[in-house]
Amino acid sequence: MHYLNQKITILVMEGFRNLFRLIIFLLLIFCCLFSSVNEIYADSKVNLNDQKKEIKRSLESLKDLDYQTWQIIVYPSSKDSKKLILRIVGYPGSLRIDHPTDLIVNSGRKTWDLKDISKNSKFKVETLNDSAAEFDLSNLIAQLDKNRPLRLRLPGLINDLPIPPYLVSEWRSLAE
Predict the structure, then answer these.
(1) pTM summary value
(2) For residue 62, which phi and psi values (nearest 5 degrees)?
(3) Residues 167, 168, 173, 176, CA torsion sign
(4) 101 in Cβ contact with 80 (< 8 Å)
């Protein structure tokens, strides 16, 4: 008789485990199906500027070889202009970019020096804090004929920040 009680107890416990697994599974499905992806995803490709015009931009967070995270933003200077601006933003408070500091871009044997235009930005200098810098990217994009990987170097701050080809492709599409 003792053996039958043990068997029933084991069957009841397995039934509770299966019920628990089913409830967890249904909760996961519920969360996946009914959560809004638009509210969770932070990157937006189209923004509205002050004049309520749409502006396409590229936004990506990348790590350099020293494991510091940088936000890379590329946007046109105006809707009609083909001039592209590259903004590099570091973690506020952890670093200070002294302006003007030229950005060195390498791709294979080619090297470009991008001039710091942070002080010439149409945004107020107060808007761009000490952890951000802007550069004119137009000449570099005009000279690229392929989506090749790039390496950015900002002397004293960024030793080597790799830019993948998919991001270069996105930048080139903004210039068109």
Answers:
(1) 0.65
(2) -130, 155
(3) positive
(4) no
